[in-house]
Design brief:
With 158 residues, this protein is mainly α. It has 7 helices and no strands. The chain is 73% helix and 0% strand.
Length: 158
Amino acid sequence: RGIYLEALRDAANRLNAAATPPSDGSPGEQFRRMLRAHLAYLSEHDGLALRLVLGGSAGDPEAWDIFDQSRWHTIEWTCQLLELDVARPALRLMLRSCAGALDEATTYWLKNDRPFDPDAMVEVVVELLVTSLRCAAQLDPEIDVGNAVAKLADPNPF
């Protein structure tokens, strides 16, 4: 069991490494590169993705927890990138909801022979993030997401 869990930690670390964008470029570019890399890695490792990363906590709670830590790492990175306070409960709730929606969308995408271009998927997830940020601001009016939304704007949409 220990070897199995260590192998999963290694897989989670590889997923994180594959989805870590260079620190150059605008925040919107960095976020898009992270998403493209994330989708590419999961597409290349769809067995791992569908069974463990996206499989839900019912299969193996310890395995789920390993990959769940990766989700929280990405949420924290996103808040830092967009200069948002990750400690705000409304942001945590809505960004976690966004991550869950990304998991579901990715599962569908992988199980259905990738019916949409990865760049189109990235842009839809960016819009999902923008909506999640606006919802967080509705829950907590003290959160100003205008700057973060502006940072995500793509001057050259596909």
